[in-house]
Amino acid sequence: MPEKNNKIITENLNFYYGKFQALKDINIKIGEKKVTAFIGPSGCGKSTFLRTLNRMNDLLGEVRIEGKVLIDDSDIYRSDVDVVTLRKKMGMVFQSPNPFPMSIFENVAYGPKIHGIKNKNTLQEIVEKSLKQAFLWDEVKDDLNKNALSLSGGQQQRLCIARVLAVEPEVLLMDEPTSALDPISTLRIEELIQDLKKEYTIVIVTHNMQQAARISDYTAFFLNGEMVEYDRTENIFTKPKDKRTEDYITGRFG
Amino acid sequence: MKKLNKPCRISQLSDKIAKPLLFGMALTAFSITVLIAFFIFQQGLPVLGEYGIWNILTGKSWRPTEGIYGILPMIAGTFYVTFLALAIGVPFGLATAVFLAELATEKTARIIRPAIELLAGIPSVIYGLFGMVVINEAMRFIEREILAGVLPPEYRWGYSILSGGMVLAIMILPTIINISEDAIRAVPRSYKEGALALGSSHIQTILQVILPSAKSGIISAVILAMGRALGETMALIMVIGNVPMLPRHGILSLFAPAATLTGTIALEMGYAGPEHRAALFMIGVVLFCIIALLNSFAMAATRRGVGK
Amino acid sequence: MLTKPKDRKELLINGFLWAAAFLAVAILVFILGYIILKGMGHVDLEFLTQKPRKMGSEGGIFPIIIGTVYFVFLTILTAAPLGVGTAIYLNEYTREGKITRIIRFGTELLAGIPSIIFGLFGYAFFVVLLHDYTQGWSLVSGALTATCMILPTLVRASEEALKTVPRSYREGSLALGANKWQTIYKVVLPSALPGILTGIILSIGRAICETAALLLTLGGSLLMPESIFHGARTLSMHLYMVAMETGNMDVAFGTGVVLIAIILLINFTANYAIKKLVARNR
Between B36, B95, B114, which is nearest C113 by CB? Predict the structure, then answer.
């Protein structure tokens, strides 16, 4: 669908938890430096799908995957792929903000540090740059040593975004990043996403259809583990091709 | 485009080493159990084989220097004090648990709970010292002044099964209280509310609904307390006199001095010769089997509790 | 009418419940109070800093305090890494399965074994079999035996502490490209530390309380321990030996006071740590 420069491509992707098939034959092409939204009712597989893209599902135990996930044309489930490098490239922001119980500075510096950056000045620069990118710098620049858990929910989520940006990813995977936030914080995050789009490929899972309509270029609708429809966002919301998509958009189920 | 191949760094190396290292630790922790069982049985089984299990378990006299290894008096002593301790400690502990879970205000509980915790943290030798000086003194007074006419002369030294039972009852209190309180608190609110809504009083609700529902937890509390009592060594050595003789005066046997399985090992290991030592390990085997049996009951009880 | 009916039986039961709880506290206060009052007069600077004389029936308890410190230190030095490591393995590296079940079953069984059995084991294994390495009855043998005893407590406490660390911390770290060990070392362990420390403090308490197993492994020397391959005695052992063998109750009570002071200190520290932990998790 997106005409050129596909960042992520999946081919006949099937995913199983034990015997339960959570994803059925997913084929998608996600464009570089675009915002792609996944929508659908709870349990439809959209979060599971997101987590196959940085192999976070590997942590869950009895899971099995079939098909291919290509990122920059290389299959991330091949045996010689290093998961650590993959995850560094595919930054992830979670549903509820999960800062570590450390200072604001330490939170942002955590990623660069584990990837081997030791120089204090370099770290300082990275932290400042990342916090600025996440629109958080002005609010916290005077107390970087404050515990991150003392921030408000919205600030915490922006901190988590800054923390991800600090490891210089190419893709941002966002798993319902605003579902635990108040409307004002939500708007700030949405503005931020619009801004980040210039540099990053963004995939966002959301419950909130308004949000998908507001911020995304492309939207995929998931139902019962299937990707029912995938198109430009305006097409999905104005002239869906599938009856099930239309039902969901107009609020008839979920 | 960045490659997704593995980088080579020290952090990578420590990640590789961590798992086998930690597994080794876990394996060590596990193998200790196996080692313990192995050594106790290896040292103790030969004696059991040589003298015959039955002869040893029912033998009434323990004269290790002469090669006579009957441990019935110690088995009896151990179970007398254990059951006595349960008879005193269970009602007392259960009442405290009910009080904490159902009646106490947060403020009162905040005084009582640390006290119970502290009770669990006091060394057995402190209980032993207290029993030796305070309880046995009182027992001596009773035995010599009040019951002097009824008691046989060898029962007048204060060192007695009753003292052992009382000290042990105090020592098992924390186990009973903590586990029963958890069990009582785990009873769903709805049961209690249901009973109260039907017009039961609070006490009736406790007796008729809450305690029966918490039964399996209370049973495991009792079994664990029993394990603790069977295994206690020091406090009992200090208060029961360590006389390996079967008490035979009916109810008056409460005032009889006695010996326990654990106490005999602790006292005699210090001076025992090789064969005597092996006999003490044999007592260890018996104790080990009793505890293992008790533990399997406990596990069966919890499993039934879970299945419910 | 909505007035309270007076039911004799209920009042009685109610009274019994109150009495039981307060009796439990009263017993504690009485035991501690009695020993402190009896022993307080005997504890002075001289008692704490002098060597014992006449098999401990006179003089002070200085070498015993030092022996206790050595013993506790050595025990924690071996037990803490082993216990925490086992807990990390069980909680972070394995999914609930056969291996974890067997290992957990093994450590749980340890918890139920009476201390005298540990003593017998320590005697047969550390004192006799490994005599060339431990020098028989020695601080090493005693500490290794005590390590076996406190291991279940430590493993359980550490596992509980690790379980309280939210999964989101681990996911957050892994998603940033940290590997498993980095995640455990830099995020999980620091968060679990107060809980683990509480477990260690409580284990120290347990080691100090222990007597029976040490009678069979630590020796009971009254001399100042010169190295970890010498015998020693702890305060608990000293109390027992003095009370049972010399009959000098003053020294026994004095030792009891010191022992109680240490136990109280440990309890308060542990409670403080727990409170800190609760406050931080809020």
Answer: B36
| C186: containing domain | 57-281
Closest CB from A72, A82, A114 relative to B1: A72
C-alpha Rg value of chain C to the nearest Å: 23
pLDDT, one tens digit per residue, over B171-204 is: 999 999 999 999 999 988 888 888 887 777 888 8
Q: Which residues of C touch A115 (CB under 8 A)?
A: 177
Q: Do C28 and B118 touch (CB under 8 A)?
A: yes
Cβ of C181 within 8 Å of Cβ of B18? The answer is yes
Pairing of strands A218-223, A35-39: parallel
* Structural domain boundaries enclosing A240: 6-98+171-249
**For chain B, first and last CA: distance in Å?**
58
pLDDT at C104: 80
Measured CA angle at B288 (ends B283, B289), to 5 deg? 100
Residues of chain C with pLDDT under 70: 1-6, 277-282
- Give percent above pLDDT 90 in chain A: 54
* Beta-ladder partners of A14: A66
Q: With beta carbons less than 8 A apart as the criterion, state whether A222 and A46 touch.
A: yes
Q: Answer whether residue A200 is part of any domain.
A: yes
Lowest mean pLDDT among A2-11, B163-172, C188-197: A2-11
Q: For residue A58, give the CATH number of its domain.
A: 3.40.50.300
Which residues in chain A touch residue C176, judged by CB atoms under 8 angstroms apart? Answer: 87-88, 91, 110-111, 114, 163-164, 167
Chain B residues 66-105 with CB within 8 Å of chain C: 91-93, 95-96, 98-100, 103-104
